[in-house]
Amino acid sequence: MAALLLRHYFGIKGDVREPVCYVDEQTVLYAVGHNVCIFNLEQRIQRFLPGTDKTEEITALAVSPNKKFVAVAERHDEGVITIFDLHTLRRRRLLTATGSNSKEFVSLCFSPDSKLLMAQGGAPEWNLTIWTWETAKPLATVKTAVSPNSVMYQCSFNPSDNHLIAVTGNGVFKLFKLTESNLKLLQSPLGKREAQNYLCHSWVSEERLVVGTDTGDLLVVEGGELKGFIARSPADSNSIESIVGFSKGIVTGSDDGNLAIYDKTEDKDMYRRSKVFSIDNNAVKIRHLTVSHTEEQLLCATENNQLFSFALSNVDIMKPEEKNIDFLATSFHAGQVTGVDTCIRKPLVATCGLDKSVRIWNYMDKTLDLTKFFNEEAHSIAFHPSGLHILVGFSDKMRLMNIVMDDIRPFKEFAIKACRECKFSNGGHMFAAVNGNTINIFATYTCENLGNLRGHNGKVRSLCWSADDTMLTSCGMDGACYEWNLKDYKRIGENVLKSCNYTSCVCTPDGRTTFAVGSDKKIKEISESNIAKEFEAGGQLMTQVCLSHSGRMLFTGGEDGTVQSWKFPLSSEYQEFLCHSRAITRMCITYDDSHLFSVSEDGSLLILDVRDKEVRGSKKEKEILPFSEEILVTKSDLEEKTAHMVDLKNKVDELHTHTQYTIRLKEKEAKDKLTQLTEKYSSELEGEKARCESLITEKSEMEMEYEEKIKNIEERHAAAVQQMEAQYQQKIMAEVERYRQLSDEKELLNERWDEQNSLLVE
């Protein structure tokens, strides 16, 4: 039994409430098929959170404020919510709405501290429930709708208060206060204002809430009171489907694909619409808006299953008339995918759908190589083994087309309306196309009708070529499964079960055994015109069957979007994989049995890795050719491009000649100017040199003159010093002599004083 591993989805489930969320700046999370995809924008790698078994589809998503958990709501008998850890990708908790008649939850929201989870239940009860999700304990429940016929759209916590809650719906706008285990209804901020259809709301601050209506009006509620009312313009009657706040204001998305930017103001309405941007060729409802943490990017999810990116940080310099909104990764099918096929020589897979587009995808690079839209819906597609041609059945005609470098070009039309099945032979030299009850066989390169296979009484739904292209197996709505010999275009085997309308069949490489599925919910193994085995897949309707080229792996696709891998040889054992949210419409497998492709009514293309050690080991014994890199180019295109290249080369030569001439002129002008400047500055230099020499001579003379003056001054100074020394020496000697005389006089006076003193004593 082969194991299947989800590898890559092309698509998004646009009808989910808040279908896309940012995990970090380079990682987004969104619902696709019956899984949740975590997509790294830089590495282009997808990881997956699986859906819950036996549930119908995903209805709502919510990422916790701390970015550690994600809640996924799925439709079931009682409604199911699964909490995943975003780090380990494991389930943390499973919550159900026990005792409720609602089968789904239409909106989810984590509390600011990420400990509580709130879910708005669906019809008919419209219960709002809050859990402490880690213990799966419900805290409070309250009915929010005014009547069972009302519709509720959204619930949310205040971004900074675990206890303040807002809900909106058709005619319903309510604020609740969570107190212990009760939800207390607060006074309506709208007062006696006439109720409207409130489609969305968003908390833009701790106190402020903005509400959007189906008439295009915006209500601004702050502190529990209606503070602002922004009426739509008379020329704009579109409803506001989504709102998101950012630091400079708010962004709204309408049902005609327009993004409106509202700037914060100080006036009574609080916001003013400044710019409106349109999504090119996508005038459809914008279901959800989300802003990255740095407010660099804004993501838009639309009703037709597309994801767009808008550079919010550059909004001030953007012009509304320019193309400002691009696909996040690539465009997807906007409706049911009706056909899928792959080729041998290139890593390509082709799809077509009711959105009137034909797309060529590269399953190795995970990219969309080509897209072309037509005027009619496409119902089936076949890819030539070379990867250079495709056959598409449109509502009006069937067209054989070439895949050229950057286009898909029809070169032959066949008068077959609404061809539901077409297939190239394994060698690529023939193809078969269903025309009602008849199968037409054509030569690929001459488009000659080689033969017609008639015998079905109802519409043929499936074809399969044998490995050597000598046999063809078909099945149809008439319950017939036929084997045809393509040498004489005769029927060589048949099995008719009128109680079963077959939808798909495959045959083994030798053409001896056929596997078919139909309306009786069984897979049948038909050998030698008899049903050898038949098994059920849990009582569900299987819509498609696919057999590996090795003939040892068998897969089926169900009406509920699941893929089954059957144990081979066919037995009752199988393994089931949750893939799509709607019925699988087509399946195919690569030539080396390494990848399985499935498409669905939900508009998505899924690439699955096929893991079977035994089969892959035997396959490696064969040398697998590397993929070819050749492409088709028409002669007219080549001639046009060659002429264009010659024209550009001539222009380059002319520019080169003109540039050379201009350079020569500039060089001559520069040379002349250089000569003039050289002469001018040479004469100036000579004059400056002469002036410098005269200054040097003058300086020398002045030095000699001042040296002489200094010498004379020094001599005069020395003579003056000597004279003053002699003069002061004489003065000192005179003072010394005077001092000596005064000393002698003092001695005489002392002697006389002593004598007089002695006489007086006697």
Gyration radius (Cα, Å) is 46 Å
* Total helical elements: 2
Largest sheet: 4 strands, antiparallel
Uncertain stretches: 616-621
Q: What separation lies between the terminal Cα atoms?
A: 163 Å
Strand content: 35-45%
**What would the principal axes of the Cα set say about the shape?**
elongated
Helix content: 10-25%
List the strand order in the largest sheet.
1-56-55-54
Please identify the structural class as seen in this structure.
Answer: alpha+beta
- Average pLDDT confidence is 91
Q: Got a strand count?
A: 56
Report on the architecture of this protein.
This protein has 2 helices and 56 strands. With 762 residues, it is α+β, with helices and mostly antiparallel strands. The model is unreliable at 616-621 (pLDDT under 50).
